[in-house]
Design a protein that fits this description.
1 helix
């Protein structure tokens, strides 16, 4: 169940652009929280990013094993690509939570005369 299930939630105006926020930044101070994204990973000083940028000789972290076309390899990411990946996962979860919200009945308009 999504975190909104069971409670009545007011949705924003349809003209408002919804932008997810970072889970690891304290909104009141703008500082990283105790469990910031970077602190959850062990970083190697030099390697190749396997994600979008493909940079060589950059600080990377191991994301896990991957399988493609029946072949296996270790997947590494630089900080910028890890941030982008984390944002995509966050947006996917937000969309899933929004889809789980109960449908609110239409509000009746003013009485017609």
């Amino acid at each position: 169940m999504g975190r909104h299930a069971g409670g009545r939630v007011r949705l924003p105006d349809s003209g408002v652009v919804f932008r997810p926020t970072r889970r690891d930044i304290d909104p009141s101070t703008g500082e990283p929280t105790a469990h910031a994204l970077w602190d959850r990973h062990a970083w190697e000083p030099s390697g190749r990013c396997w994600l979008w940028c493909g940079q060589l000789d950059v600080e990377v972290t191991w994301l896990g094993p991957m399988c493609s076309s029946g072949m296996h390899a270790d997947l590494y990411s630089c900080r910028a690509c890890l941030y982008e990946l984390d944002q995509r996962v966050l947006e996917s979860n937000i969309r899933r939570d929004i889809a789980a919200l109960p449908v609110m009945p239409s509000m009746p308009g003013p009485p017609r005369r």
